[in-house]
Design a protein that fits this description.
Shape: flat
Number of helices: 2
Helix content: under 10%
Radius of gyration: 20 Å
Distance between the termini: 13 Å
Number of strands: 19
Strand content: over 45%
Order of helices and strands: EHEEEEHEEEEEEEEEEEEEE
Largest sheet: 10 strands, mixed
């Protein structure tokens, strides 16, 4: 059984977060010394490590509740990436002149290469524009990142707003350190999270 809980893990946890995008590259060394490289994924997979030792006992209680409610790694949830959680006038579609839907996304471009990252967990309040003009009646599903709008044909459609990363616990054990009882029970290890691509 798996699913997703549309709730953000306490933002204070994000203050001690380490992580970001990861890629998988297949490398094969040839006899002449050349290394052939092939990307195994078409987009980055985000991974994080939460440094819960920075939190108060009351925060640990929320982490424990989240960990048990998600059955460890069974259910996903939202995480605010402290480094990357805002988009400002990011292009993601071209208007057709009729009602249409499109996935919110961010494009990373460098030189001739680019990678498109779908944004599936936007926060309420996203603004949709066409050629810089706010589109009346445009809506965004905050559980999927799908925008619905009508934009003039050929106009560049952009979005602005905040977004979360869908993640899940990468471990099924939450360990506490009882040796520090005088200071309150604390997590003995940091907790790894991995982007939940099924959300």
């Amino acid at each position: 059984m798996s699913g997703f809980i549309e709730q953000r893990l306490l933002e204070k946890a994000a203050e001690g977060t380490q992580g970001g995008p990861t890629w998988a590259t297949r490398q094969v060394g040839l006899s002449n010394g050349v290394v052939r490289r092939n990307a195994s994924r078409s987009r980055p997979l985000y991974r994080y490590v939460i440094l819960f030792n920075n939190l108060l006992d009351s925060d640990h209680a929320e982490v424990l509740a989240a960990f048990n409610a998600t059955r460890g790694g069974a259910y996903g949830f939202r995480l605010r990436d402290p480094r990357e959680h805002t988009a400002v006038d990011v292009a993601f579609a071209t208007g057709t002149g009729a009602s249409q839907t499109a996935q919110l996304a961010i494009t990373y471009a460098w030189g001739p290469e680019q990678v498109v990252r779908p944004i599936r967990k936007p926060v309420a309040g996203v603004v949709i524009k066409a050629n810089g003009v706010v589109l009346p009646g445009a809506t965004v599903d905050t559980t999927t990142g799908i925008a619905t709008f009508t934009a003039p044909a050929g106009h560049t459609v952009t979005w602005s707003g905040e977004f979360d990363v869908p993640v899940r616990f990468e471990t099924d054990q939450l360990a506490w350190d009882y040796a520090r009882a005088a200071q309150g029970l604390v997590l003995s290890t940091d907790i790894p999270l991995i982007e939940d691509l099924s959300a």
